[in-house]
């Protein structure tokens, strides 16, 4: 299952399997039905990444998947919001002003 911190399901989240040793990768979009099947994948140790709009990405590593052995991984995504703000002005060598923007994560 893929849900938020309030246990609301997040259909449309993408789940990516990646084998860092071979470079094999496969991505599926979760439909909210409780499963995100990866069929006919080679047995290996994978990294699993889950992304959904408006939520922080989750990555789990060292997930061992075997032939004909279903695995269950549940994910709870945390909300992510960001704001931009001006940290100050800088004067370049030519004397012109420019603004520097930084992104700050709010929790």
Describe the structure.
The protein is mostly beta strands. It has one domain (2-81): Carboxypeptidase-like, regulatory domain (Immunoglobulin-like, Sandwich). It is 0% helix and 50% strand. The strands form three sheets. It has a four-stranded antiparallel β-sheet, with no helix packed on it. Strands 1-6 form a two-stranded parallel sheet. A two-stranded antiparallel sheet has the order 7-8. A hairpin with a 6-residue loop joins strand 2 and strand 3. The protein is globular, with a radius of gyration of 20 Å.
What attributes does this structure have?
about 110 residues; mainly beta; Immunoglobulin-like; 4-stranded antiparallel sheet; two-stranded parallel sheet; 8 strands; about 0% helix; disordered C terminus
Query: Tally of extended strands?
Result: 8
Mean pLDDT: 78
Helix fraction? under 10%
CATH class equals Mainly Beta
CATH fold-level label: Immunoglobulin-like
Oligomer: single chain
What characterizes the major β-sheet? 4 strands, antiparallel
Q: Which structural category do the helix and sheet elements fall into?
A: mainly beta
Alpha plus pi helix count: 0
Distance between the termini: 23 Å
> CATH superfamily name?
Carboxypeptidase-like, regulatory domain
Shape: globular
As a whole number of angstroms, the C-alpha radius of gyration is 20 Å
Point out poorly predicted stretches.
82-107
Q: Any idea how many domains?
A: 1
- At CATH level 2, the architecture is Sandwich
The SSE string, one letter per element, is EEEEEEEE
> Strand percentage, roughly?
over 45%
With strands numbered from the N-terminus, the spatial order across the biggest sheet is 3-2-4-5
